Every structure is written in structure tokens, then in C-alpha cells.
Amino acid sequence: MNSIRFFDILLAMLGVVILLPLFILIALCIKISSKGSVFFNQTRVGKNNIDFKLFKFRTMYVQAEAKGQLTVGGRDSRITKVGYYLRKFKLDELPQFFNVLLGQMSLVGPRPEVRKYVNFYTAEQLKVLDVLPGITDYASIAFRNENDLLEKATNPEEYYIKEIMPKKIELNKQFIEQRTLKNYFSILFATILTSVKGK
After folding, report:
1. Which stretch of DSSP H or E encloses residue 163?
2. Does the pLDDT of residue 191 top 80, yes or no?
3. Looking at the predicted structure, is the pLDDT value of residue 69 above 70?
4. Domains identified in the chain, total number
């Protein structure tokens, strides 16, 4: 077991134990505020181009994904009132601790995409699938306002594919090329700070 995997397991286990009361509170808020399940599972592309189920707290109304996989703007009408705040502070991502414990993800690594967008990757870009995807990465921090950028675009999906996605992949490659414990922890701390600020 390498050092990054060791800290993945250790921190994910601590996170689940320490944040269990928060998990329960969030689950209650979701259940009371809108119809549907507490959790939302979505198929994403993981290491070695293999699909897996990514866990999230549900932030949208039931069947909302059928209207599109990109969320546009902070007040997308498909997002519930509770979901807005879960997304703002990145709390909807917490169930991915279980993906980490299952060995499907790392705490830090390229954010996993849905198959639809991976199909646009070039042969060079597909190299980001050589490592475990992560809950957070450089791109997650740099594009924390992604929804606002998409809201301003004439064609959000085209803008995402041609402008945002390539930049994200370049940032992902930077971490892969310098996958050290120092960078691992610096990304974790930066993510916590930006999540607390809600920006």
C-alpha cells in the first residue's frame, strides 16, 4: 500500500466517523424538504476507463438529470433549496468517502466524468484515467464557480466541452505528474478552505 492510499483510507474512515452526525442531519433535511431518496448514484468513469457508481447526497428533484447532466448557474431550477446549500459548501460530495473506502476513488485526483464527456477525450487526455479519480483536485478549486461560467455561455454544453473540460484535464495532469504527499495535502487544505467560504 502506497502512502497516498494509506492516508485515503485513514482520512476517509475518520471523516465518516467524525461527520456521522452531519450525515444524519443532511439526510433528514433532504428527506423532509423534497420527495425522493437521500442519496444520488451516478455512473462515472474511473481508473482504467472502468465505470463505477459515484455516491452523492441528492441535491436535485427526482428525474431532474433527464433534463441535462450539466448544472447551469447557482439557482438552476432543478436544484432543491437544501441542495443549493449542499452544493455551495460541497457537502453533497461527502458520501464519496465510501467510494474512497471501496477503492474506487482517492481523496485527491482527477474528478471523474460521465461517459458522455469522456467520449470527447483525445488519446492524450485519456491518460488521466491511469490513476484513481478523486473527490477534489486542482481543477475543482480553480473551477469552483463553474456553474456561473456556464450560465453566461450561449451554449453551456459546447462551452464546457471546448473550453472548461480541456483546462480541467491540464490541471489534472499537473497533479498526476507531481503526485506527492505535499501536493495531496495542499489540495485537501485548499479545498476545505474554499468549501468553508462557500465560494
Report:
1. none
2. yes
3. no
4. 1
Over residues 120-145, the mean pLDDT reads 94
Angle subtended at Cα 12 by Cα 173 and Cα 44, rounded to the nearest 5 degrees = 50
Rounded CA gap, 17 and 15, in Å?
Answer: 6
What is the rounded end-to-end Cα distance, in angstroms, of the chain?
35
Q: Is 148 helix (H, G, I), strand (E, B) or coil?
A: helix
Between CA 113 and CA 32 the distance in angstroms is 30
> Which three cell numbers mark 74?
447557482
Domain range enclosing 174: 3-197
Return the SS3 of 60.
strand
Q: Which region holds residue 89: left if phi is over 0, alpha if psi is between -120 and 50, else beta?
A: alpha
Residue 110 C-alpha cell reads as 482527477
Report whether 134 contacts 108 (CB < 8 A). yes
- Closest among 114, 113, 110 to 130, alpha carbons compared: 110
Beta bridge partner(s), residue 106: 134
Element (H, E) at 107: strand 106-108
Cα-based distances in Å from 164 to 27, 58, 66, 123, 168: 32, 24, 22, 18, 6
C-alpha of 85 from chain center: 15
Residue 71 contacts residue 153 (beta carbons within 8 Å) = no
Residue 176: all three cell numbers together = 498526476
